[in-house]
Write a structure and sequence with these properties.
There is one protein chain. By secondary structure, this protein is an alpha/beta fold. It has a single domain (8-191, 218-244), classed as NAD(P)-binding Rossmann-like Domain (Rossmann fold, 3-Layer(aba) Sandwich), CATH 3.40.50.720. Helices cover 44% and strands 15% of the residues. The protein is built from eight helices and seven strands. The chain has a seven-stranded parallel β-sheet with strand order 3-2-1-4-5-6-7, with helices on both faces. Helix 5 links the parallel strand 5 and strand 6. The chain starts with 7 loop residues before the first strand and ends in a 22-residue tail after the last strand. The structure holds nicotinamide-adenine-dinucleotide (NAD).
């Protein structure tokens, strides 16, 4: 028996990166998974690959900035797979720049995807989860939910908002059987990281170096956390902001002192 046998999940942003890895992980453990994404080609290819392997997955076009599209994704999960047990609000898009230079439209679009989209996902999913007597919501925040990153104000603001939105769901619906948790990844090897590296001054190696494990995180390592939080194994965990950051937030390396103890930490 898989850890998610009999469960139905929706993963927004499920066509790429962390979302795609989570779709795979949930399906491997027996869940039926709806991939809810704008990228139809990639979503359909992933669903076909998993279905071909005897697993249960379907792609549904969904723009998380529109509540009706999330309601339709939930209705699709119910009609296709019989209900909803897990909602993973994971889609992201962000612009950036110095605060005074950020276009209002870029700010609004960023918040629409990463904060409104999570709210809409929770709002659409909660009635269906209650129908099943409860379920799990896992919202993707970031280590940038805890602190700001240069030139990323919309991203940091949205990700911080996700943490408190998640806590609100947790305290309001805990007694009704719904758990809600946020995940806070460090740098994960996805197309989003490629964009960050292309746009920024730090190389992939510079970014890796800031993590205690000395490397960036694999999407599957994040998916394993989502799987755990979505599963009944996490039955007492709700309202949490769980880091999966390779030690990025464990401390600073302000002073360096590379030769203490006679060695180097590189
Ligand atoms: N990669 C990292 O280093 C990192 C670190 C911390 C947090 N995160 C978060 O993890 C999540 C997944 O990111 P990723 O790195 O896998 O990125 P990704 O770019 O690989 O995947 C994001 C997905 O979201 C989809 N998407 C964008 N706008 C959408 C919309 N309006 N409606 C529906 N789908 C939409 C995209 O089509 C894409 O498939 C995001 O919330 C991101 O902020 C990523």
């Amino acid at each position: 028996m898989g850890r998610m046998e009999g469960k139905v999940a929706i993963v927004t942003g499920g066509a790429s990166g962390i979302g795609a890895a989570t779709v795979r992980r949930l399906a491997e453990e027996g869940a039926a998974v709806v991939i809810a994404d704008l990228q139809d080609d990639k979503g359909e290819a992933l669903a076909a690959e998993l279905s071909g392997a005897g697993l249960r997955a379907a792609h549904r076009h969904c723009d998380v900035t529109a509540l009706p599209e999330l309601e339709a994704a939930v209705a699709f999960a119910v009609s296709e797979f019989g209900g909803l047990d897990v909602m993973h609000n994971n889609a992201a898009w962000s612009g950036g720049g110095y605060v005074a230079d950020i276009d209002v439209e870029v700010w609004r679009r960023s918040l629409a995807v990463m904060l409104d989209g999570v709210f809409y996902g929770c709002k659409a999913a909660i009635p269906a989860l209650l129908e099943r007597g409860g379920g799990a919501i896992v919202n993707t925040s970031s280590v940038e939910g805890f602190f700001a990153e240069m030139l990323s104000a919309p991203y940091s603001a949205a990700k911080a908002g996700v943490l408190n939105l998640t806590r609100s769901v947790a305290i309001e619906y805990g007694r009704k059987g719904i758990r809600a948790n946020a995940i806070c990844p460090g740098a994960v090897d996805t197309p989003l990281l490629d964009l960050v590296v292309a746009a920024g001054e730090n190389s992939r190696e510079d970014i890796a170096e800031q993590h205690a494990i000395g490397r960036v995180i694999e999407p599957r390592e994040v998916a394993n956390l989502v799987l755990f939080l979505a599963s009944d194994e996490a039955s007492a965990i709700t309202g949490a902001s769980v880091v999966v950051d390779g030690g990025l937030t464990a401390g600073t390396r302000l002073t360096g002192f590379p030769t203490f103890g006679g060695g180097t930490y590189r």
